[in-house]
TrEMBL record, chain A:
GO biological process, one term: amino acid transport
InterPro entries assigned to the protein according to its UniProt record, in alphabetical order: AA_ABC_transptr_permease_3TM, ArtM/GltK/GlnP/TcyL/YhdX-like, MetI-like, MetI-like_sf
Highest taxon listed in the record's lineage: Bacteria
Keyword Membrane in annotation: yes
Membrane topology: Multi-pass membrane protein
GO terms for cellular component: ATP-binding cassette (ABC) transporter complex
Protein name: Inner membrane amino-acid ABC transporter permease protein YhdY
PROSITE patterns: ABC_TM1
Signal peptide start and end residues: none
Residue ranges of the TM segments: 41-62, 110-130, 137-153, 159-177, 189-216, 228-251, 263-287, 299-319, 356-379, 399-418
Domain ABC transmembrane type-1, chain residue ranges per copy: 228-422
Gene: yhdY
Automatic annotation (TrEMBL), chain B:
Identification of the protein by name: Glutamine transport ATP-binding protein GlnQ
PANTHER family: AMINO ACID IMPORT ATP-BINDING PROTEIN, PHOSPHONATES IMPORT ATP-BINDING PROTEIN PHNC
Lineage top rank: taxon: Bacteria
The organism of origin for this protein: Pseudooceanicola marinus
Protein encoded by which gene: glnQ_4
Gene3D superfamilies: P-loop containing nucleotide triphosphate hydrolases
Entry keywords, A to Z: ATP-binding, Nucleotide-binding, Transport
Family under the similarity heading: Belongs to the ABC transporter superfamily.
Length: 434, 262
């Protein structure tokens, strides 16, 4: 059969071949190693060299990590325990882990930041895992931004409630006005009314109700905030706010309205052109000069605003990239079906643009979260600031690696989770097979 | 494909009424300095099926895209179903919800299922209750013969199926006029037929249609007028038989000889 071709051009197969397993040397772990590690002499040499290098590193590092100093009460005590051997002094972590996590937050109130973190995860669940979590939980997610500051800072419950009321008032104004005027004007009017409410009325009203019905948690001052609690508070706020603001800025930058476009471009380019540290200094020093004397504008709030604005500018550019990658046909199809600008953005354009931008968005998130360590420069005690403080203590003077390894590990857990989640999301949103 | 069913008698349903559906008068359009449409005059009656042909770059797409304001015209007048297209957004939305359009590259929404593609506009533009929108969508998906694909994503369908979904999606808005911009030119030959069959069926039901296409068999079978454009102008229009057998202008003759492969 195999040599029919030699005799004549006509060829007809008379028996079909059964499916066979691939040669065993090309599948399984052996096949994989052969393909990837030992496919040529150069490759083999590199494999051997790198294995030796890794082995050497582990040989030196593992004894350092596995060191019996958990109970050490000071650096000199650690040295006694180690008795001349090289090794880490983990006692510092045991001694100071609460401070690294909570800063100078009153220990009897530690339950509040812990509860906040748990509630944060609950609030995130319906957003992150739409397939598994009931959408009803989204109501809780919407309430969380008002719950979080109350739990962390304490004080009267009426303040966050009045802040929330501002949104309700703005929404009510929008629904009323939009019956008479177009969407753009209604949004502006609603925003103006809400801002007036927050600036002028919210505080007196909250205080008024509080004097009748005092429902309050023990207040905690911003200067007591510190450690990972501070990083997470600033990071989560900046991440949560920068996405919507970034979307608005990206749309504004692509807008046909010259004024909107100029404002957005100016903002984005200004923020991107200035280092974050400069913005933080502005927040810590300069704002005080411009604000009317006597106003008590919380330093953490100021920093949050600056970090959020900083992240928003980057976010806007990432999302603009996603928007630019969408084929023009998608806009045209949405137009041709009669969807107006906002509906087209919300239902057609944004879901696709955001999906394209997921890697960039998550990179920005991770960057922002890590940038929160910069606040130590203006005197807020983030984990790195605390590390310096701890090293100034005579007991722990001279310790470096242990603290930074601990801080690095905690940051890594957060950042790596974000990165894994983004991969999960990309896979989930994958439709079609092109 | 050039002589499919030349003898098919025009079905009774394919009547043309006297009511004017689209009126374009003295319409001009420029892209920057480039005069892309020049003095376009065209009246389309309800139930008419018009095929627009012409060489590449002659402005066919631009013209039909002006009808639902995907492109803006700078001079002249376009009235669709009694609504004049100006920069008034209300009018534009009104026209767009009455005029369906199918594109060369389908432009389905890849992040939505076929069913969601079809129900989106009825739910959000027409405010149809979801259940009713789904029923309508299934009805039209059955009509284009792919109800079983309803829960797949566009990326999982063949080109011909995608184009039929695009037609169904437009029909779900119950449009009074349908525009087609080369709906079959991105398709393989065997898929062209399934899309054309769908369009023929639509024509037989009396839909007002404007169709840019090079499918001359389709033109002969369903069109009551063929319009030939060149360099942004309408050069010739006639009934299909006359147009193909007895073209008047030199440009038309040249074009037909090229497209019919003589
Ligand atoms: N956005 C635009 N800006 C500038 N010129 C354009 C634009 N869109 C189209 N044109 C030009 O206008 C002319 C008409 O384009 P149009 O797409 O209407 O042609 P067409 O007849 O549909 O051609 P085809 O058969 O290739 O689709 C072409 O010369 C094209 O280069
Ligand atoms: Mg075209």
């Amino acid at each position: 059969m195999s040599n029919t071709h030699a005799d004549t051009v006509l060829y007809v197969r008379d028996t079909m071949l059964e499916q066979q397993a691939p040669p065993s040397s090309t599948v399984g772990p052996v096949g994989w190693a052969k393909d990837n590690l030992f496919s040529g002499w150069l490759n083999t040499a590199l494999t051997v060299l790198s294995s030796l290098f890794i082995a050497y590193l582990l040989y030196r590092l593992i004894p350092w990590f596995v060191s019996p100093t958990w109970d050490g009460s000071s650096l000199s005590n650690c040295r006694e325990i180690l008795d001349g051997h090289e090794g880490a002094c983990w006692g510092v972590i045991r001694d100071r882990w609460q401070q690294l996590l909570f800063g100078f937050y009153p220990p009897e109130l530690y339950w509040r930041p812990i509860l906040t973190l748990v509630l944060l995860l609950v609030a995130l669940a319906p957003v992150l895992y739409t397939d598994y979590v009931t959408p009803k939980l989204l109501y809780f997610s919407a309430a969380f931004p008002f719950l979080m500051p109350w739990l962390l800072w304490g004080g009267t419950v009426w303040m966050p409630l009045m802040a929330a009321a501002g949104f309700a008032i703005g929404f009510a104004v929008f629904t009323l006005v939009s019956r008479l005027l177009n969407a753009g004007i209604s949004i502006s009017v609603a925003a103006a009314v809400a801002v007036l409410w927050w600036v002028l009325l919210a505080a007196p009203v909250a205080n008024g109700i509080a004097s009748v019905l005092p429902l309050a948690l023990e207040p905690v001052a911003s200067r007591d905030f510190g450690g990972f609690m501070l990083s997470i508070t600033i990071g989560v706020t900046a991440i949560g706010c920068s996405l919507p603001i970034g979307i608005v800025l990206a749309l504004g930058r692509r807008s046909d309205l010259p004024l909107v476009k100029i404002l957005c471009v100016g903002f984005i380019e200004f923020i991107r052109g200035v280092p974050l540290i400069t913005l933080l200094f502005v927040a810590s020093v300069l704002l005080n000069i411009f604000l009317p004397p006597g106003t008590n504008f919380d330093i953490i709030l100021r920093v949050m605003i600056m970090v959020t604005l900083f992240a928003s500018a980057y976010m806007a550019e990432v999302i603009r990239g996603g928007l630019a990658a969408l084929p023009k046909g998608q806009y045209e199809a949405a137009d041709a079906l009669g969807l107006d600008y906002w509906k087209a953005q919300r239902l057609i354009i944004m879901p696709q643009a955001l999906k394209i931008s997921i890697p960039g968005i998550v990179s920005t998130f991770i960057g922002v979260f890590k940038d929160t360590t910069l606040v130590s420069i203006i005197g807020l005690i983030d984990p790195l600031g605390l590390a310096n403080g701890i090293r100034a203590d005579t007991a722990w003077n001279g310790i470096y690696w242990e603290l930074f390894i601990f801080i690095g590990a905690v940051f890594f857990i957060f950042c790596f989770s974000m990165s894994r989640y983004s991969m999960y999301l990309e896979r989930k949103l994958q439709t079609g097979h092109r | 494909m050039t002589n499919t069913a030349v003898e098919t008698p025009t079905p009774a349903a394919m009547k043309v009424s006297d009511e004017v559906a689209i009126q374009i008068s003295q319409m001009n359009k420029w892209y920057g300095q480039f005069h892309v449409l020049r003095d376009i005059n065209l009246t389309v009656n309800r139930g008419e099926r018009i095929v627009i042909a012409g060489p590449s770059g002659s402005g066919k797409s631009t013209m039909i895209r002006c009808i639902n304001r995907l492109e803006e015209h700078q001079a002249g007048k376009i009235v669709v179903d009694g609504t004049e297209l100006t920069s008034d957004l209300k009018n534009i939305d009104k026209v767009r919800s009455e005029v369906g359009m199918c594109f060369q590259h389908f432009n389905l929404f890849p992040h939505l299922t076929i069913l969601e593609n079809c129900t989106l506009a009825p739910i959000w533009v027409r405010k149809t209750p979801k259940k009713e929108a789904v029923e309508t969508a299934m009805h039209f998906l059955e009509k284009v013969k792919i109800p079983e694909q309803a829960n797949k994503y566009p990326g999982q369908l063949s080109g011909g199926q995608q184009q039929r979904v695009a037609i169904a999606r437009s029909l779900c808005m119950k449009p009074r006029i349908m525009l087609f911009d080369e709906p079959t030119s991105a398709l393989d030959p065997e898929m062209i037929k399934e899309v054309l069959d769908t369009m023929i069926e639509l024509a037989e039901e009396g839909m007002t249609m404007l169709c840019v296409t090079h499918e001359m068999g389709f033109a002969r079978q369903v069109a009551n007028r063929v319009i030939f454009m060149d360099q942004g102008q309408i050069v010739e229009q006639n009934e299909p038989e006359e147009f193909f057998n007895n073209p008047r202008s030199e440009r038309t003759k040249l074009f037909l000889s090229q497209i019919l492969g003589h």
